[in-house]
C-alpha cells in the first residue's frame, strides 16, 4: 500500500539509532508515495536510509528501490513483503537528496518514482524480465501445434522471454495463450531475471605501435606517409 507522505525529519545518522524491522521504499515506477516492506532479520543491522534494495512489486515483478525511511509499524491493511536483497552496501543518495526528491514531488505534483528515475543514472534503474523455462521431466502431453513448437524450441535454448515467444508465434495473444496453456499442463515455469535498463556503450580506439614511440622511428613513419601521399596525388 502506498504511503503519500514521506518522513525524513528524523536524524538517520544518529549512532544511538536502532534499525527498524520495516522500511519505506521508493520504487522506480510511475506510482505515488512510498511502499512498506519488511526487513529480514539477517539484514536488520545492514539496512540504511538511501540504500538501493531489490523488492517484489505486484505478483511477480522485481524492481530496484531506494530506502527512504525506517520504522517498527507494520501495515494495517496487508502483510508486508520482505525486501529481497540489498543491492548497494552504502547509500546511493543522501538524507538531503531524499528531502529534495520529496520537495520536487510536491512542488511539481509528480510521483516519487518519477523523480527517482530522473535523478539516478541509468545503471541504477533495474527491473526484472519474465523468462520461461521447460521442466526437464515431462509427462506424456497432448499438445497443439503452437505448444509443440514452443516446447521443441527448448531443445536448443535454455530459456525464452515473452518477446521471443511472441516473435516465434506471430502475436502477443498467441504467446500468452500458449504459455498459460503450458503452465496449466505443468510443462513450463516462469521466473524473473533482473536486468539493467541501460545498454553499455562501446567506442573504438586506435593505438600507436610501441615501436614508433621513439622520435627517430616516428619521424621515419611520417616521412614515409608523406612520400606515399605525394605518389597518390
How would you characterize this protein structure?
- This protein has 233 residues and is of the alpha+beta class.
- The protein has two domains: 2-124, GIY-YIG endonuclease; 128-196, Winged helix-like DNA-binding domain superfamily/Winged helix DNA-binding domain (Arc Repressor Mutant, subunit A), CATH 1.10.10.10.
- Helix content is 30%, strand content 21%.
- It contains six helices and nine strands; from the N terminus they run E-E-E-E-E-E-H-H-E-H-E-H-H-E-H.
- The strands form two sheets. Strands 1-3-2-5-4-6 form a six-stranded antiparallel sheet. A three-stranded antiparallel sheet has the order 8-7-9.
Shape: flat
Proportion of residues in extended strands: 15-25%
Largest sheet: 6 strands, antiparallel
Q: Average pLDDT across residues?
A: 82
- Report how far apart the termini are: 75 Å
Integer-rounded radius of gyration: 27 Å
Structural class: alpha+beta
Tell me the CATH architecture of the largest domain: 3-Layer(aba) Sandwich
Helix content: 25-40%
Q: Report the CATH C-level class of the largest domain.
A: Alpha Beta
Give, in spatial order, the strands making up the sheet with the most strands.
Answer: 1-3-2-5-4-6
Uncertain stretches of 5 or more adjacent residues: 1-20
Amino acid at each position: 500500500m502506498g504511503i503519500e507522505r514521506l518522513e525524513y525529519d528524523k536524524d538517520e545518522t544518529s549512532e544511538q539509532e536502532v534499525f527498524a524491522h520495516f522500511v519505506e521504499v521508493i520504487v522506480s515506477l510511475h506510482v505515488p508515495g512510498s511502499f512498506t516492506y519488511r526487513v529480514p532479520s539477517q539484514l536488520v543491522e545492514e539496512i540504511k536510509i538511501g540504500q538501493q534494495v531489490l523488492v517484489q512489486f505486484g505478483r511477480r515483478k522485481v524492481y530496484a528501490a531506494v530506502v527512504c525511511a525506517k520504522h517498527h509499524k507494520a501495515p494495517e491493511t496487508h502483510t508486508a513483503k520482505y525486501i529481497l536483497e540489498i543491492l548497494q552496501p552504502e547509500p546511493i543518495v543522501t538524507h538531503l537528496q531524499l528531502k529534495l526528491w520529496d520537495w520536487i514531488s510536491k512542488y511539481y505534483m509528480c510521483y516519487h518514482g518519477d523523480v527517482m528515475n530522473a535523478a539516478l543514472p541509468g545503471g541504477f534503474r533495474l527491473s526484472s524480465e519474465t523468462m520461461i523455462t521447460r521442466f526437464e521431466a515431462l509427462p506424456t502431453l497432448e499438445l497443439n501445434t503452437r505448444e509443440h513448437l514452443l516446447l521443441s524450441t527448448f531443445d536448443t535454448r535454455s530459456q525464452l522471454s515473452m518477446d521471443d515467444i511472441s516473435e516465434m508465434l506471430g502475436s502477443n495473444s498467441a504467446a500468452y495463450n500458449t504459455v498459460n496453456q503450458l503452465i496449466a499442463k505443468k510443462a513450463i515455469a516462469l521466473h524473473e531475471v533482473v536486468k539493467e535498463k541501460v545498454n553499455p556503450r562501446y567506442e573504438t580506439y586506435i593505438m600507436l605501435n610501441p615501436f614508433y614511440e621513439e622520435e627517430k622511428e616516428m619521424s621515419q613513419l611520417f616521412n614515409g606517409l608523406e612520400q606515399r601521399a605525394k605518389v597518390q596525388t
